[in-house]
Amino acid sequence: xxxxxxxxxxxxxxxxxxxxxxxxxxxxxxxxxxxxxxxxxxxxxxxxxxxxxxxxxxxxxxxxxxxxxxxxxxxxxxxxxxxxxxxxxxxxxxxxxxxxxxxxxxxxxxxxxxxxxxxxxxxxxxxxxxxxxxxxxxxxxxxxxxxxxxxxxxxxxxxxxxxxxxxxxxxxxxxxxxxxxxxxxxxxxxxxxxxx
Length: 196
Hints:
This protein has 196 residues and is an all-beta fold. It has strands spanning 2-4, 8-10, 14-17, 22-24, 30-32, 37-40, 54-56, 61-64, 69-73, 77-79, 81-84, 92-96, 101-103, 111-121, 132-143, 149-153, 157-167, 170-174, 178-179, 184-188, 191-195.
């Protein structure tokens, strides 16, 4: 396991890998002015369901001015704040081999990007009681097995794809406009997109 107890500040890339869990304390922020951020728990890729989680406490921030962010784990990915002004179609990527994405708090913004969030998961994105708060250009989520997909979007969002192939619902709440809502599909559940 890797415990990050202090801030990392750089102008280039930041890459952190561990064979098991990676845990970021409140002081464990990552900030880069022009590089990419890569964090990989379960770097040995045993993918056994207990090989490694990536956990940010609620006040931890990963920030890149222009780069991409890529987070991966075998188990759950728990978020503080991820932010970048990168506008690419892979601006922020979240990948879990056996888990999902969880919110480390109950009300603060979790993901902000001018580009696309891409997530490949197994057990959901947020929960019915604690959605992932976002400010995204567009979203592409694949969830294979269980759990709900819960998003609370504070700006206009394009739904490039939200595909739930397992058992669970898709709930997208948005304040402004959500385009291409027809691209949200649930194999065994409901799709609810609503303006709030």
